[in-house]
């Protein structure tokens, strides 16, 4: 069974409490449950990790990257600043999709930049929680086509 990791960065554990206009009304647990159900329907195991600490995210990637067929990541605020996270992601030889609930390109100027955008296979932003499902379905499609080992 193929394995896909879903990593969420700082403050994403506070979804449903944060600005619902920007981030929607689902909790991270709600989103994870939907992704797990979709994975189960498609014979794909989903592994979830969230941390508010950059080093913990990097350690999780270092300790588990050989187990995954693909990665969905919402780095949260680390998107704009973390060269260390970028360096950890560059180690991976799997498809990586960057997901953002809001459209970071249309927000404050400091949020417009993603330090990982040029090393990910694609970015999905501004679609709310549906962006995670779109990313998962993209990876499932690649698995079904035999494009992912």
Structure, described:
The protein is α/β, with parallel strands linked by helices. Helix 2 (28-41) packs parallel to helix 5 (130-144) and helix 3 runs parallel beside helix 4. It has a five-stranded parallel beta sheet with strand order 2-1-3-4-5, covered by helices on one side. It has a single domain (2-144), classed as Dehydroquinase, class II (Rossmann fold), CATH 3.40.50. It contains five helices and five strands. The chain is 35% helix and 19% strand.
Largest sheet: 5 strands, parallel
CATH class: Alpha Beta
Number of helices: 5
Specify the CATH homologous superfamily: Dehydroquinase, class II
- As an assembly, this protein is single chain
Low-confidence segments, ≥5 residues, pLDDT <50? Answer: none
Pairing-aware structural class of the strands and helices?
A: alpha/beta
According to CATH, the fold-level topology is Rossmann fold
Work out the helicity level: 25-40%
Q: How do the SSEs run, as a string of H and E?
A: EHHEHEHEEH
Number of strands: 5
Number of domains: 1
Observed structural traits:
149 residues; alpha/beta; Rossmann fold; 5-stranded parallel β-sheet; 5 helices; 5 strands; globular
């Amino acid at each position: 069974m193929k394995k896909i990791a879903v990593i969420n960065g700082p403050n994403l554990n506070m979804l449903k409490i944060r600005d619902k206009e920007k981030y929607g009304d689902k909790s991270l647990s709600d989103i994870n449950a939907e992704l797990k159900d979709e994975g189960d329907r498609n014979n794909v195991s989903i592994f979830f990790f969230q941390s508010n600490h950059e080093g913990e995210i990097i350690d999780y990637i270092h300790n588990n990257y050989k187990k995954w067929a693909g990665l969905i990541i919402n780095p949260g605020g680390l998107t704009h600043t973390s060269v260390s996270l970028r360096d950890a992601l560059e180690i991976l030889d799997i498809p990586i999709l960057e997901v953002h609930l809001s459209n970071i390109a249309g927000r404050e100027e400091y949020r417009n930049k993603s330090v990982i955008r040029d090393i990910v296979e694609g970015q999905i932003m501004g679609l709310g929680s549906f962006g995670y499902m779109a990313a998962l379905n993209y990876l499932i499609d690649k698995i079904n086509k035999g494009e992912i080992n």
